[in-house]
């Protein structure tokens, strides 16, 4: 879907991005992760040509993006940034409708699309349609930004630290909401972040960058259990396994078993917190309940296997 070939961007003698080769798989979310200044934003902006490459090329659906007109290119690429820049004098509905209106959709179709999208991002259209951006919380404004980027149904979504400006609680909520949306829509998403937890939580794959080059490309499991270099291991940190558990629901690790007499947790609890409950309760197994009904049992060993694998890979 999106392919970077020998992509480079120089500023004077310095390389912001150097000989970057990468294929972003279709329908998946790839987190572009790395320390500050490693070239993530420059890479993203070379995809929609807000920044022109010094060398190399970007292919979109097999076509060199230089052969596409910029408007044509950007229409196929939704773009969400940290300071989303909603138009303050327009209503929420008008903000979301910007692109459909540019495309000349009729009013009925646009209005329907706006309501569908507001619902998708968890904002009741009847309540939010007529509000102005100034009346929204940071999290709500960011949801409107996501809705706006999805308005013309672009196959690709480029996101630059979209949740970065939010407080931790709002960020968690919006990450969860976005994960749900992505599971339904299956867009090809490139998400720039320097937040390891966010990359582990949302990324089907992670492209970890270091000083303008690619340090490793793989699934979160690959990076944690099979780091390609000391840099990767160091960047993810000693507690990478715990971090990964934090991003996964306890329900993922449930196995059949007799829950009678075990401490109980909800299936939506994350696996790291479940580990905490085991330690606190002094129990090596927990009953996992979905809406009050037992699903099965979560065992210490099932969580620990992953930890052991990680240690072995790091040894
Ligand atoms: N317009 C510019 N002029 C000169 N140097 C630039 C310019 N834009 C970026 N750079 C340099 O290129 C490098 C990569 O920048 P980039 O913004 O892509 O990094 P990043 O990984 O997105 O960082 P951050 O997480 O801090 O936003 C940095 O060293 C930066 O100083």
From TrEMBL:
Q: Which GO terms describe its molecular function?
A: ATP binding; ATP hydrolysis activity
- The domain of life for this entry's organism is Bacteria
Q: Which SMART domains match?
A: AAA
Keywords (alphabetical) are: ATP-binding, Nucleotide-binding, Transport
- The protein depicted here goes by the name ABC transporter
Q: Which PROSITE patterns match?
A: ABC_TRANSPORTER_1 (PS00211), ABC_TRANSPORTER_2 (PS50893)
**What's a GO biological-process term for it?**
quaternary ammonium group transport
Q: Which residues form the ABC transporter domain?
A: 2-236
Protein family membership? Belongs to the ABC transporter superfamily.
